[in-house]
Amino acid sequence: MHFRTRKNVIQFVRTIYNQETKKPKAMVVGSIPLGKAVINDELRTKLSEEEIVQAETWIKQQHHTTLLKEELAALTLADTLTLANNWFSRQGDTDAAHIAAVDILPALQLLRKTLNKL
User: Fold this and answer.
1) pLDDT per residue as tens digits for the range 18-66
2) What is the DSSP pairing of strand 2-6 with strand 23-33?
3) Cβ-based neighbours of 65, under 8 Å, separated by 6 or more
């Protein structure tokens, strides 16, 4: 069993060996929403106990990794902003600076709202 993250879902993929072609074949057993990574009852019926344990372990690990990434991003954000400011200062009025600013401004506004609530 392995797992694929596709857009907003996690796919559960079982690999089955085909005796006729002598090749493995990947088969999607089911999927769950990425935002609510909990194995539902319908999917549980399609998985073996071992696969359920593998899936729950994988989900737990992914969740833990995401939390660590978020913490690292928060703790290093001041340094990252300083570096970004240096880069923008050097870029001036370039296309690269404009493209980056379009992505950054909404994220900064959202961060300000969150920080103001604290």
Assistant:
1) 888 889 999 999 999 988 889 999 999 999 999 999 999 999 999 999 9
2) unpaired
3) none
- 10: pLDDT strictly greater than 90: yes
89 with 101: CB under 8 angstroms? no
Whether the CB-CB separation of 97 and 88 falls below 8 Å is answered with yes
- Residue 36 sits at φ, ψ, to 5 deg, of -125, 75
pLDDT for 63: 93
The rounded Cα 1 to chain-centroid distance in angstroms is 19
What's residue 18's pLDDT? 85
- Residue 68, both tokens: 């660590």
Host H or E run for residue 2 = strand 2-6
How far lies 39's CA from each of 5, 31, 62, 73, 87, in Å? 14, 9, 14, 29, 44
Among 44, 41, 19, residue whose Cα is nearest residue 29: 44
